Amino acid sequence: MDADDRLRVRVVVEGKVQGVWFRAWTQEQAVSRSLLGWVRNRRDGSVEAVFDGVSAEVEAMIQACWTGPPAARVLAVRVEPIPTTPEFEVFTILPSA
Fold it and tell me: Are 7 and 53 in contact (CB under 8 A)?
């Protein structure tokens, strides 16, 4: 992958996003897009993720987060670009934070 075509973002998804399989859905969607990174629940009821990969796939994942799994009700998706580093080898679900 060309470094110019690579994007890493931190995403916080707010709404009814815990207890609705959002993390598992996110992992499935990210893996299908060949993204690296992680997803976890946060104490404030939101879900946080880092997506790393081809820019177009990261952008598609951000858009998919607005819908989420069927039982989710997404109210906001906050996105923050962050520096890319070669620390991820897979996309994983982390413990809640």
Answer: yes
Exactly one of 41, 42, 43, 73 is catalytic; which is it?
41
CATH code of the domain made up of 3-90: 3.30.70.100
- Picking from 55, 72, 79, the residue whose alpha carbon sits closest to that of residue 15 is 72
Residue spans of the domains in the chain: they are: 3-90
Check residue 3 and give its pLDDT: 60
Give me the catalytic one of 23, 33, 40, 78.
23
- Over residues 81-91, the pLDDT tens digits come to 998 877 788 99
Closest CA to 36 of 54, 23, 14: 54
Task: Determine how β-strand 47-54 pairs with β-strand 36-41.
Answer: antiparallel
The Cβ of residue 46 has, within 10 Å, a number of other Cβ atoms equal to 20
Annotated active-site residue 41? The verdict is yes
Which are the contacts of 21, defined by CB distance < 8 A and separation ≥ 6?
69, 71
The tokens describing 94, both together, are 């982390």
